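G.,

No rush on this.
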Amino acid sequence: MNKKLGREERKLARKEKKSQKSVRFRTEFIENSSPQTPKIQFLPDLEKLPKLDSNLQDLETPKQPKVSQTGSRFGYQMTWCARIADIKDGWSWGESRQWSESEWEELISKGLNSLEGLDWRELQNMTSDTMHLMHHDHDIGELCDEAVERWLELDLEQFDSPFRFRLGNKKRAWGIELQGHFYLVWYERGHNIYPVS
């Protein structure tokens, strides 16, 4: 019984932390924007491709049905874009961060579009044939050192729980979720960002 209670307390603490981060993000980047700091602009829902020299000032979330402001993604329908994707250079293990046109069309866009519109609760309950969760967050500290360093270089440190979608055997889409919208940051082919033994 104590283990179950401890697990519930940790779950509530994580939920509260995410809620605080969401409120802080809205306050710092949206509500407190001064005339010198451009406000976040709503972008067309259909615009999925990365922007050159993108940064967090370009973050926006498509309009969603109103849900309670608990900080939870549950109740939101999944939408996504690649507007802040990190596609420059490559990883030390020899993998380019840039995807090919066929990877975009056949794996990334097709895979994420097939999930778009589903509730986040549904997404996070999806399991593989081996009953492992397919789509979930990771604590940033669980990622390889190079990915953590890159995450910090991209000024994404306020998002300490990257979300990842499984797009195939070892293929993953990594990014951040904000108010139900998934911002693709990395596409990887070989499961190296979160190495498994």
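When you get to it, here's the other one too:
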Amino acid sequence: MNKKRGQALVEFVIILPIFVFMVLAIIDIGKIIYIRNELENELSDVIDLYRNKKTYNDILNDVKINDKDVELEIQNDDNEKVTFYLTKNIEIITPGLNIIFENPYPVEVKRVIGYE
């Protein structure tokens, strides 16, 4: 009877760190996907403001009101298109996951529209 208890304890001790790592990694990856979706929605609002002839400072203030950690960049590449970038850094909480992702992980969305 004691051998079975000891075997179960050893199996538990071996599996527990792997399980905790997987759960934390799923949380981090979910957070990255969620932030990316939020930035996509915010970028749509930024483009609407740009098309309504708002100034860069007005657009930047609107973005900063929604989230102070978001970086906005607007580039006029040439006379035909404008490129919008929204970036936010996400802190990775899973130990060891920074081997795969840099910490903080920059989540960036980009959209190119025709120049108006």
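Residues 2-114 form one domain. The CA atoms of residues 9 and 15 lie 10 Å apart.

Enjoy the weekend,
O.
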